Amino acid sequence: MFEGGLNVDYFILLLAILLLLGVVTTKFSSRFGVPALVLFIGIGMLVGSDGLNFIYFDDPHLSQLVGVIALIIILFEGGLQTKWNSVRPILATSLSLATFGVFLTTAVVAVSVKLLLDVNWLEAFLFGSIVGSTDAAAVFSVLAGKNVKEKLSSTLEAESGSNDPMAVFLTITFIELLTKDSTSITGLVLSFFWQMGMGAVFGYFFGKFAVYAINRIRLESSGLYPVFALSFAILTYGITMLAGASGLLAVYVAAVFMGNSHLTYRNSIVRFNEGFAWMMQILMFAILGLLVFPSELFHVDIMLKGLIISFVLIVIARPIGVFLSMPTSAFSLNEKLFISWSGLRGAVPIVLATFPLIEGVENSQLLFNLVFFVVLTSALIQGSTIPWVAQKLKLTEKEKPTSPHVLELVSMGKANAEIVEFFVPEHAKIIGQTLEEISLPNESTVSAMIRGDELITPTGRTEIHAHDILYIMAHKTKLKSVSDYLSKQNIEKN
């Protein structure tokens, strides 16, 4: 009994250390330009049996479970902050990259793996499938706060949020071909279209239902709203997967719908999920770091072959996938080159690499170690150079100031009015107008303004400047009208 309690305490202490180290390493990540996921993985490898020997861990089932839960939360948080107005123009391009692009990348990598390793064609294509997709956690974290052109960052984020179904489909397909005597190719193809199509449909309807429920329910504590919203993300994944569709795609679609709709306690929901997503990233990458044994990973043979495969993936396969999947798009050569370079690999390939381990596929341990090495190489080489490449290709833009302020009504959940925050971008139509000159809907008024670090009590004669933050109090029945009006003001002057 004492030993059991001691083990629990020991585990809790290690969990606290992992989280603390994970948070601290983000400072080094920003300072040295190394993606945080590499440092999180390094923490896991450090405390593992080949490092300080604090934890012996070799359970792919638990790793897969933690990885999937973390991906749900990370995709949900990323979707909440995705602007539909930015994604809509490049949606077709992103979907092409997420499907045809992943398939092309898989095929090119598979050829190199077949030539390099002593494996059959099915095992080679299994490896290509695992590393074929970009990773949402890596892309979201690396692009956050960077001044890359919005069109490019939106394309990469939408691609990484929607290409998991293709990678999962290809991975499961080749595992079935390797482990089962007979597999229906027609059935697998139909399954893919079902997963993609119904994943999007489930996501849309669950997102719509979540918005309705969150705005209608009156909870006793404002702290319950973020938990309520997150529960819909997990519910969306669970029910969608039970229906045989893509749960990860459904979560991302639902989150995008929710993030672009009016939500009660929006700031609380977004901030909570932002912090929770960071926590799950730390735990996920640390556990994945525990799963690998550095003595096996950094073997000369693995490193040499891993570097060759990484070179093929980064320099040949990814560019082929990008250029052939978007031949008629309105992207310039430099923009396509940047998208090619920014195809980061992260948690998704490592989580997918646990599938053949669990199924007992031949050479699965070799494939896992190589996948892990390729992910580290991609994160270190590509992740740390994305800002530099964007600058060299002249694909950066002036850094957009963002609002550091948060203002919410304490009684918003029960009152009949809410406060809407509006950041005035440069060249917005209402710049230069006074508050009495703008045409806000009835039963709505600007109750406060922030200019720089100064709080302004507005009057009708207060003039609106670029980068002002307006806090508009409106009756709940007028919120859509206010939102529509503000959307029109967000268009630049002619």
UniProtKB/TrEMBL annotation:
InterPro entries: Cation/H_exchanger_TM, Na+/solute_symporter_sf, RCK_C, RCK_C_sf. It is a multi-pass membrane protein. Pfam families: Na_H_Exchanger, TrkA_C. Its main location: membrane. It is found in: Cell membrane. The chain crosses the membrane at residues 6-24, 36-56, 62-80, 92-113, 125-144, 185-207, 227-255, 276-295, 307-326, 338-358, 370-390. Keywords: Antiport, Cell membrane, Ion transport, Membrane, Transmembrane, Transmembrane helix, Transport. Signal peptide: none annotated. It comes from the Bacteria. PANTHER family: K(+)_H(+) ANTIPORTER NHAP2, NA(+)/H(+) ANTIPORTER 1. This is Cell volume regulation protein A. It comes from Fictibacillus halophilus.
